[in-house]
Design brief:
Blueprint (H helix, E strand, L loop, with lengths): L1 H7 L2 E2 L10 H10 L11 H21 L6 E4 L2 H18 L8 E5 L4 H12 L3 E5 L9 H6 L5 E5 L13 H19 L16 E5 L18 E5 L10 E5 L25 H15 L2 H22 L4 E2 L10 E5 L6 H10 L2 E2 L14 H4 L12 E5 L6 H11 L9
Parallel strand pairs: 1-11, 3-4, 3-5, 5-6, 6-7
Antiparallel strand pairs: 2-8, 7-8, 9-10, 10-12
Helix pairs in contact: 2-8, 3-8, 4-5, 9-12
Length: 413
């Protein structure tokens, strides 16, 4: 009976990996094709293209509480993260600071685009402190703030984890960093403007990767107390290949690439009018009806957890039960013969899910789940991540749990 249900309808529960294009985003991108010219040209066609991009930039800025000149369009979250982290570090190095005197604070559960960029910087002498989360998958703001040193140039902490969905205390970390900067400025009697506010670069700078958040959580940059924020269109029903890096005007950072003046000299390449328009439309749609969308997803997720606890009592839920994205459910199941085989089995049953981050290839276990400190050796290896769609139904949940009960297991002696 279950098989026929799977044959009639597939259940896509991998929204953390990517999301389907919203029909309104498609329509907005098709309209944008009329502005096909190079937006950096000064003829009439180019002016129309430039105007279309700047309208999208203004829309994005308004939705996240920033100024249009603080929004830089990139190819996605990975480029935005790498660009900003390396940009801040390069600013310090070009200012005469030696690599060993540049320090960064991050967490051990960041997206691989952050972790790999930091590891590359470490090879060149930069010092990095990685703060571990608690067993619930949430870092403590006190631990992050305690890791800050006088030479700390940057603190980067994601808003919501892409594997286990845990929501980090970003606004508390940002508020703590602002307090540290104010105290440093007061102690040094630093430069003040007419209003008494600091006018120069302030360190540490605080960056958050909010790529997973817009469909489910408000992403107001001031509300998060962040100096910079990363967003990615394809995580919120927008097109692949476009994202945004939002950076406050007072922050100094060097571009990752050179060779053109696009995006105010920070990202040299000809902008895609269609992709940028799709990004802006997706963010607008994500901001509309966010609360009822999150409420509905949370009810489905909690129903899934109830069914798992009843039907698969040996399974372990990874991460906090409440401080997580409304649509995220990450579980570990003992005695799985092979996690990837399990995903393929579920795929044959009509269910799309994943084992860990889709950006990780060749890794046998989830480094995120491993940091939770669980004593079970199988827990980080035998993970399955479900990230539900807004329209996932209770019937879908029951089908998924029924399929999980049939997964191939290691034979017991």
């Amino acid at each position: 009976m279950a098989f026929s249900l799977f044959r009639n309808k597939r259940i896509y529960a991998d929204w953390a990996a990517t999301t389907p294009l919203h029909p309104q985003v498609v329509r907005a991108m098709l309209r944008a094709r009329r502005a096909w010219a190079n937006p950096n040209a000064i003829h009439a066609e180019g002016v129309v293209a430039r105007k279309t991009i700047e309208e999208a930039r203004s829309s994005v800025a308004r939705l996240i509480g920033a100024k249009p000149e603080e929004v830089y369009f990139m190819s996605g979250g990975t480029e935005a993260n790498a660009t900003f982290i390396q940009g801040v570090i390069r600013t310090r190095l070009e200012g005469g600071v030696r690599p060993e005197n540049v320090h960064v604070v991050s967490t051990s559960i960041e997206h691989s685009s952050v972790l790999e960029t930091l590891r590359l910087s470490e090879k060149h002498g930069v010092q990095v402190t990685y703060v571990d989360p608690g067993s619930d998958g949430i870092v403590r703001e006190d631990d992050v703030l305690a890791a800050i040193r006088p030479e700390t140039a940057l603190v980067t902490c994601m808003f919501a984890n892409n594997e286990i969905g845990t929501v980090q205390p970003v606004s508390k970390i940002g508020a703590g960093i602002r307090k540290i900067r104010a105290e440093k400025l007061s102690a040094e009697d630093g430069p003040k403007g007419p209003s008494g506010r600091e006018t120069g670069p302030d360190f540490p700078i605080f960056h958050t990767d909010a790529s997973q958040a817009p469909l489910w959580l408000p992403c107001d940059i001031e509300g998060l107390r962040a100096d910079a924020m990363t967003l990615d269109a394809h995580k919120m029903q927008g097109p692949k290949g476009v994202g945004a890096l939002v950076v406050r005007r007072r922050v100094a950072w060097e571009p990752l690439m050179v060779g053109g003046g696009q995006e105010r000299g920070k990202r040299p390449t000809t902008e895609s009018v269609e992709l940028i328009t799709g990004f802006a439309e997706a963010l607008s749609l994500a901001s509309e009806g966010r609360e009822p969308r999150a409420k509905g997803a949370r009810q489905i997720r909690d129903r899934f957890f109830e069914c798992v606890e009843k039907e698969l009592p040996e399974a372990v839920i990874n991460g906090s039960l409440d401080k997580r994205l409304p649509n995220n459910a990450n579980i570990s199941i003992p005695d799985l013969s092979d996690p990837e085989l399990a995903v393929l089995f579920l795929d044959k049953e009509g269910i799309a899910c994943s084992t860990k981050s889709s950006c990780l290839k060749g890794e046998e276990e989830s480094y995120v789940v491993k940091t939770l400190g669980a004593p079970e050796p199988w827990r980080a290896r035998n993970t399955i991540r479900f990230s539900f769609a807004p329209n996932t139904s209770e019937k879908d949940v029951l089908i998924i749990v029924e399929a999980l009960k049939k997964l191939p297991k290691i034979p017991q002696n």
